[in-house]
Every structure is written in structure tokens, then in C-alpha cells.
Amino acid sequence: MVRIIERNEYFIVEKIQCLSKSAAITTSMDVRFLITSHLRATTEGIIKEHFGLEIVEELFNYFQKKLTDNNHTFTKEYTPDIEYLFIVLKRKAFDR
Asked: Is residue 95 part of a domain?
């Protein structure tokens, strides 16, 4: 992960720490909610820009329902152990 960030050349890794599952706040959360939240965090801006704000809530509610309908995907058999990384980045100053 550090090599990927350094290769980008826009950020410096200030701190990186692997969190144990007991330290991760999200372990008590529902996996479907986590997946929906992460997808929403990364795509909501683009969706709003292209399709408008009105559709966002409906779209992600529908997505979470589809995940719930396919519940077999989230059984222990299909879900790998997850590693949680806490990373603090600092944006590099660069000349314009």
C-alpha cells in the first residue's frame, strides 16, 4: 500500500497502522451496510453530477436491498478475513 501511494507522488504517508478486528469499529456493522457505504462514498459525487441528487438515496437503498436478497454471498464460506488499514496522508507541496 505504501508503494502504491508513493508511486502516485502527490502524497506522503504520515502514519499507517493495521488495525486488529477488535479495534475496528466496523466489525459490529452489517457487511451489506459497509459495502453500500463504501460504494456510496466513492461514487455519490459522480452519480449526483450526472443524474441529479434525487436518485442517489433511492439508488443506494435499492443496491443494499439487492445485497440483502443475495444473502448467501455474505456467509463465512464466501467472505475472506478483512484487514483494516488506518492511513494518514499528507499532500505534497508542488510547484505550479
From this structure: no
